[in-house]
Amino acid sequence: MDPMLEWSLLSGPLPWVLLLAGAAGLVLLLAARGRRWWGRSVPVAVGSAVVLTALAVVVVDVVWQPFPDPVPLLVVLAVGLGLVAVGLAVARWRWWSPVAATLVVLAAAQGVNGYYQEFPTVRTALGLSAADVLPFADVAARQRQYVGSRGTPLEGGWRPSADMPDAGVVSQVDIPATVSGFPARPAWVYLPPAYLGSTRAQLPVLVLLSGQPGSPDDWLTSGELAQRADAYAAEHDGLAPVVVLPDHLGDPLANPLCVDSPLGDAFTYLTVDVPAWIRSTLQVTASDWAVGGLSNGGTCSLQLAVNAPDLFPTFVDISGEDAPTLGDRAQTIAQAFGGDEAAYRAVNPLDVLATRQFPDTAGYLVGGLQDSEYLPQARTVFAAAQAAGMDVEFHPLPGEHTWEVWGPGLGDALPWLGTRLGITP
């Protein structure tokens, strides 16, 4: 393994090196004398960057609207800075101009990554697979299984086999949309150490969903799911939930709203096709399942908890919205429900929570303390869930609507999940 691939892009010296190199590149691009340069070339480069950036923001936030929240100011400034550098390089073309502009663009990209924390290491930024990825066929063979006593925490009787590894593995899998026809991309599965020895513990399942835009493996790359689950397993004799990461979007920018609609039958895929694959393919508990997710996936986990409570009586909602949305309520009802508000209300979590009680459902909600848009929505969901009889907890964490909250939020939820799903007392 090349240690350079594990260099952090979120802490340590590398982020500072990139930012300082970008500053040096910008100084080099600007360093010229002459009234024509400062009076014409620089203003043209800056003005062009401002116009192009503003146009891009209008297209994304107003015209296209691929996601409900607007582009953050820091991202706008970073894009604008990169365009300024490109404009300056074109205006003052030297052999070193592309190098200097590239340094500025890399620094701007690092600024965006520092905000979202999407790529924690060089490996993830290059799109390379983690070292613990194995073909599913290598770990799918059925093993002698340890099944704990009903009503007794699994940890109390489980003894790991001598050949149990120290860490879990992840594998890419195909979960067919046999019933739903949903255009799902390949899914991923995390199998903890207790699943991998010659004696296999019968473990509970966590179905974990990405945000939007997003992909099923976001939790593995940006959220460091395997590392967090391995750390939990190391404290519990290799025991941790089996984590299945299906695609609930169909495309990185799609938003089928976790319902069955003209946008795709995502609800049937998640409640029929995915469970059927889990039961037929994995050696896990028949019940004791949970669903969780971040942002759009957090909203979906709440929707599944209220609309399929027998399947998912446990949910983890990290920075989710209080309602499925394509931008606003009217637009959502028009595009996904054919203008039928009653159909929307029948599946909208807050409407369902206002009319039903869920005494057997438990939830773990997380919100970023600096997330001015989603934190109030999380508080609204928490209050509504409490009023509907759910056993819910709310945990605000420092940060905005980024991986600074999402990854640690899941890590903090694992002990709660372990108890709720029968691993620990």
From TrEMBL:
Molecular functions per Gene Ontology: acyltransferase activity, transferring groups other than amino-acyl groups
Keywords per UniProt: Membrane, Transmembrane, Transmembrane helix
Classification of source organism: Bacteria, Bacillati, Actinomycetota, Actinomycetes, Pseudonocardiales
Gene3D superfamilies linked to this entry: alpha/beta hydrolase
Transmembrane spans: 14-32, 44-64, 70-91, 98-116
Name of the protein described by the UniProt record: Esterase
